[in-house]
Amino acid sequence: MAMKNDIDIVSPNTRHRYCLWHIMRKLPKKLGSHVEFKCGLKSALQRCVYDSQTSNEFEKSWEVFIDAYNMKENAWLQRTMLKEFVDQFDNALRKKVENEMATDFYSFNCTVPCISHLPVEKKFQVVYTNSKFKEMQSEVMGIIYSHCVVIKIEGTITTYQVNDQRVVEDGIKKSTLQAYFNEDECEAKCMCGLFEMREIIYRHILLIFVARDVKVLPEKYIIQRWRKDIKRRYALIRINYDDLSGKPTASRYFGLIKLCFEVATNACESKDNSLDMT
């Protein structure tokens, strides 16, 4: 609650939202004790979230889901004391840094082979970490179960109907979506919005690129956070367990942050000084 209040003070016009990816990852922990969790509840919730194309459609599906599984009294989030949260954050960040270091070493020294001849896959093999590349390869495999048909062409914009199949808990889920390709921008967009949500190129977009014989992947589809040659800034953040004497890079980083904070604090006292700094 203290952190929520601080966010409201610092960014009063910002609407704080929870990341859908993190929410969905918590399903087993938050709802796993429900007697119907593995017998329809989980797949019903996933259909409600991922298959809704509009906010109205989602709200209707959500009401049906809540009523069907009597979830009105479920406490989805649990409160913790601020100190406990900080301790948990420190431990999580420490583990994250250690895991990232091990993952980066593995990515630079071991190469995961491609499963296709697609230039797009080869590009991701070169730039992405191995774990994220493997995730992307599952989407390459998904092309086998998808196909697209041209609906209409208007200038440089081609509209496709994408038919897809994917495995869910209770069988095969079939879906039909619309996707678009802008020839001038070499840009593909699917109405499922999964690329924007998951930040990994999805099979629907890959399918369009294959159909259009795209050999050079536009940079917008290469997400910086998944690159193996990017220095992750959170690895430099000072946390409780750190002894910066053995980490000169982190020590310099912390010193620069402190200096920048002091400069910003002084500059904001005057409009002219603020303008000079920008």
What's the short version?
By secondary structure, the chain is α+β, with helices and mostly antiparallel strands.
Structure report:
The protein is α+β, with helices and mostly antiparallel strands and 278 residues long. The chain has 3 domains: 2-68, no CATH class; 107-226, no CATH class; 243-277. The protein contains 12 helices and 4 strands. The chain has helices spanning 2-10, 20-25, 27-31, 37-50, 55-68, 82-109, 119-127, 130-142, 194-198, 203-211, 248-267, 271-277, and strands at 146-154, 157-168, 171-182, 187-190. It has a 4-stranded antiparallel beta sheet. α4 (37-50) runs antiparallel to α5 (55-68). The longest helix is centred in the middle third of the chain and has 28 residues, at 82-109. The radius of gyration is 23 Å and the shape is globular.
Summarize the helices and strands and which ones pair or pack.
Layout: H1 2-10, H2 20-25, H3 27-31, H4 37-50, H5 55-68, H6 82-109, H7 119-127, H8 130-142, E1 146-154, E2 157-168, E3 171-182, E4 187-190, H9 194-198, H10 203-211, H11 248-267, H12 271-277
Antiparallel strand pairs: 1-2, 2-3, 3-4
Helix pairs in contact: 4-5
